[in-house]
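User: Design a sequence. Structure:
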């Protein structure tokens, strides 16, 4: 509006100038007429002509006329100035106009240069504006598009989203003249002269979509290749494992025959190499399974303290053979039973504690399990006094196939997979695995994981003795086990004192009445006996021995000990030593593992073995014969059913069936299902069936139980586990 007013000014001025000129002419003419009239009148013969008055009058008139002319001229000058001013403003307005047009052009070329496709449509869908990119995409001239309802040919549509500001976002695959293009549109409502319009701005995403699709395809291919690799690894490992199990089993059997010392050495080397190879294959297999995303973690209740103590006990002989101590402390504030995957947690503990034994030459290993910082969290630390790990290596050792340094690898062996697997397992459980270490100062691996309390796990794992007011003296040359025992005794209320030297102990013993004296047999039998004699007045004199020292027990009892504890010491055994009616001989029943040969009971069972692999069948047969059983072999599922039916018909049914899972024709699962179906139909007693497999995965286990099996035996078969499984299956069958 303002702009229009400014532009009208010159026209008004011109009109005013014109009227001023007309007025000036009129005034001049009138002045002239008046002067003329006045002069004519004055000069008339009738008038009394007075030349003076006449001159005065003429001058006055002339003066008035000049004044009027002067005023008019100054007005004209003023008008000219205004005119010049107006011309300047007019020029400025023209400049501004030009600038605006320039800016419009720039904006337009900017839009075009963007490469985005722009189209505007009115309320009826007719095109009101298109840019060059749209024309190119449509393959038509602008004139052919404007005012038409033209729509681009769509081959595929993506999802449509509406943003909070009302913008509609959607993708379309357009069939353009030079091939299909993916356009990502943004539609917004804009105001226009004729009302509201829709402006669609489309960005060409073809290259990005192509790259994304190529990437997804490449990823799918890589995943498929990785799965194929894992399957191949699993298959090859399985195939290698089967004959290797045969070799190891045969080596075991050979070890039971009469051998010269030289032959025994060779056999031992053969077994060690075979076992190393087996554990290597198992690690690779496990890793490939986890890599293939098959880390299925179970969530079943299990006793936490027992799991940790078992792991420590299993590693005990290995540590003690190196002269190392190994012990554990499970805080009693933790629930007796927790929910989680016991097998995988045991695997992690075994790996960490196994490494600790491997990389420690002096001192020992302790596993401490305590409540974590948040509810349900459990903090496990595996500490050793070994070679330690440098900060640079700490960052690497959790990676696949990484070891601290090449030198140690050659010295200690291993694959560098143990920690990578452990880390994946713990992270799979939602926890974390970290390390604290310095070279030469040992290492502590920390596991923190949430394991919820199992239902009904409120009563404690063991009923701890009340040792308030008791003083206990622990005499042990090494500190690890002693400090773990002291810590537990203190939790039970006792005051515990540790001394590392028998001379110091001798001087301390007579100083007060100790409720109990615990003496480590590592001091040597004579020193232990001397201390036991000196402590004769104390109510409890307990000796700590390694399983290898069992044969010394009679002599130690003779020497005056009232009880013994086998290292690594279980909390339950320690508690039992402080029970009022504890005797030296009862120690064997207080959670201390009996010598393996004592544990298997029974014998003379009639056992059907379904196994297609000849070597494994030979091994199973030899082991069963050695255990005093009567094996019958079947090489397939069908043959096993036939033999089982025949034995029943003859009135001498098998006591147990050992069933290989993978057999040609009818596999072990199917054979078991059929046997169970026959038993159900005929109402016959149930024959305990144990699976024989090289795979101990949770799926296999579940499949076996679902098929009606009673237990599970993982190859390679060894005498102890075979005997224990046969006995357990018998008990389970009786209970059923
Ligand atoms: P492996 O023991 O088969 O080599 P791991 O993944 O279990 O594989 O361990 C990787 C490396 O971490 C080991 O080779 C060793 O160099 C280092 N390491 C692990 N545990 C310890 C430990 N307790 N003390 C010192 N070094 C360790």
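Assistant: Done.
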């Amino acid at each position: 509006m303002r702009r229009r007013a400014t532009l009208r000014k010159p026209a008004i001025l011109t009109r005013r100038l014109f009227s001023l000129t007309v007025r000036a002419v009129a005034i001049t003419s009138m002045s002239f007429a008046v002067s003329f009239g006045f002069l004519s009148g004055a000069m008339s013969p009738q008038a009394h002509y007075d030349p003076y008055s006449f001159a005065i009058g003429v001058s006055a008139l002339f003066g008035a006329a000049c004044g009027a002319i002067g005023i008019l001229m100054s007005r004209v000058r003023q008008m000219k100035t205004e005119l010049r001013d107006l011309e300047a403003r007019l020029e400025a307005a023209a400049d501004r106009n030009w600038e605006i047009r320039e800016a419009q052009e720039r904006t337009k070329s900017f839009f075009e240069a963007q490469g985005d496709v722009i189209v505007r449509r009115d309320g009826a869908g007719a095109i009101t504006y298109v840019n060059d990119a749209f024309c190119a995409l449509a393959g038509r001239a602008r004139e052919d598009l404007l005012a038409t309802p033209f729509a681009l040919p769509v081959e595929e549509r993506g999802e449509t989203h509406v943003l909070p500001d009302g913008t509609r976002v959607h993708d379309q695959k357009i069939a353009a003249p030079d091939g299909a293009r993916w356009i990502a549109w943004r539609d917004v409502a804009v105001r226009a002269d004729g009302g509201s319009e829709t402006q669609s701005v489309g960005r060409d995403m073809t290259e990005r979509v192509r790259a994304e699709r190529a990437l997804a395809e490449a990823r799918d291919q890589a995943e498929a290749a990785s799965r194929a690799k894992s399957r191949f690894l699993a298959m090859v490992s399985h195939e290698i494992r089967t004959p290797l199990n045969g070799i190891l089993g045969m080596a075991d059997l050979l070890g039971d025959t009469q051998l010269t010392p030289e032959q025994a050495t060779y056999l031992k080397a053969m077994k060690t190499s075979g076992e190393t190879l087996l554990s290597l294959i198992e690690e690779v297999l496990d890793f490939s399974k986890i890599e293939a995303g098959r880390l299925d973690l179970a969530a079943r209740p299990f006793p936490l303290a027992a799991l940790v103590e078992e792991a420590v006990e299993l590693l005990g002989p290995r540590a003690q053979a190196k002269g190392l101590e190994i012990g554990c402390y499970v805080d009693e504030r933790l629930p007796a039973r927790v929910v989680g995957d016991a097998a995988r947690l045991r695997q992690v503990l075994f790996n960490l504690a196994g490494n600790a034994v491997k990389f420690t030459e002096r001192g020992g290993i302790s596993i401490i399990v305590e409540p974590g910082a948040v509810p349900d969290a459990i903090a496990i630390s595996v500490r050793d006094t070994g070679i330690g790990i440098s900060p640079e290596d700490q960052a690497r050792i959790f990676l696949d196939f990484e070891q601290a340094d090449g030198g140690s690898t050659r010295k200690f062996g291993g694959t560098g997979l143990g920690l990578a697997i452990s880390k994946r397992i713990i992270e799979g459980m939602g926890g974390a695995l970290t390390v604290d270490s310095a070279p030469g100062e040992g290492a502590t691996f920390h596991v923190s994981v949430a394991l919820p309390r199992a239902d009904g796990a409120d009563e404690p794992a063991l009923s701890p003795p009340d040792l308030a007011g008791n003083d206990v003296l622990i005499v042990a040359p090494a500190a690890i086990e002693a400090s773990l025992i002291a810590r537990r005794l203190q939790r039970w209320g006792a005051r515990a004192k540790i001394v590392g030297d028998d001379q110091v102990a001798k001087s301390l013993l007579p100083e007060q009445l100790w409720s109990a004296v615990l003496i480590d047999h590592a001091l040597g039998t004579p020193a232990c006996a001397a201390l036991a004699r000196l402590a004769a007045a104390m109510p409890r004199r307990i000796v700590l021995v390694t399983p290898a020292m069992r044969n010394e027990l009679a002599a130690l009892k003779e020497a005056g000990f009232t009880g013994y504890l086998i290292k690594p010491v279980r909390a339950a055994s320690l508690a039992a030593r402080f029970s009022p009616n504890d005797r030296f001989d009862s120690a064997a029943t207080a959670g201390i593992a009996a010598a393996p040969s004592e544990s298997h009971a029974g014998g003379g069972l009639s056992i059907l073995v379904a196994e297609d692999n000849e070597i494994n069948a030979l091994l199973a047969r030899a082991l069963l014969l050695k255990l005093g059983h009567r094996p019958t072999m079947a090489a397939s599922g069908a043959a096993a059913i036939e033999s089982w039916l025949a034995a029943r018909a003859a009135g001498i049914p098998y006591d147990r069936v050992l069933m290989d899972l993978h057999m040609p024709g009818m596999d072990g699962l199917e054979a078991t299902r059929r046997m169970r179906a026959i038993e159900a139909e005929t109402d016959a007693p149930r024959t305990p069936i144990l699976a024989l497999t090289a795979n101990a995965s949770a799926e296999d286990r579940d499949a076996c139980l679902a098929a009606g099996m009673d237990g599970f035996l993982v190859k390679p078969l060894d005498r102890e586990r075979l005997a224990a499984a046969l006995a357990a299956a018998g008990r389970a069958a009786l209970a059923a």
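The pocket of adenosine-5'-diphosphate is lined by residues 351, 355-356, 359, 384, 386-387, 389, 397, 403-404, 408-409, 414-420, 443 (CB under 6 Å). The chain has five domains: 2-112, 115-204, 300-450, 471-577, 606-735.
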